[in-house]
Amino acid sequence: MLGLPESTEVRQFISKAAIYRKFELNNSQQTLFDEDIKKITIVNEISSQTVKLSGNDDNSFFVLEVQLKHKNYEKKNIERLSKLIDQNILLVLTYEDEARLAVFKTILHETEWKQLENINLTLTGLSFDALWENVIRTVGRIETQEESTLEEQITSNIEKAKIQKQIDALKKKMKSEKQFNRQIEIKAEIKRLEGMIS
After folding, report:
1. How far lies 153's CA from each of 24, 160, 163, in Å?
2. Between 59 and 116, residue with greater pLDDT
3. Which of 8, 9, 167, 179 could be cross-linked to 50 through a Cys-Cys bond (beta carbons 3.0 to 4.6 Å apart)?
4. pLDDT of residue 128
């Protein structure tokens, strides 16, 4: 899967009952989880035993295939899965013959849906930490500025997205505003907010 080396392949199923116990989900949460997710399988383990890197750290990450019952899943269920194993986890969300990658780092990052056979993951980095950060950057389409760490860039992107949402709401409000003076005030606020994200 994902064009990863054969040495990384694993085939280990995770039961939903184990997830319900681990997260102490109540009946309604279990129902919501069951409505979204058909089956969960650990398909790859990227570790020092399965991949050769020049660094000698002992970090690793797992690739989980999550077969969905439909595309309109509840993101909270996917976030719970990311926290299930006390390891870094890359999720391959599959529905019929389509798939998308997802990873949780501060927020849930997801790729676009594609045909499953067209999704590949290239492992790049001299250490597992660098490799894992590159996976997050790839899935989240995150471009870090030279002076920013990955964590700082994600936080910055979240803030920019919130500001963009405010701008979009103000633009909508300005279109329906009848008073010219109020339109000018809204336009000035939009300009101020745009300056914060440029």
Report:
1. 33, 10, 15
2. 116
3. 8
4. 84
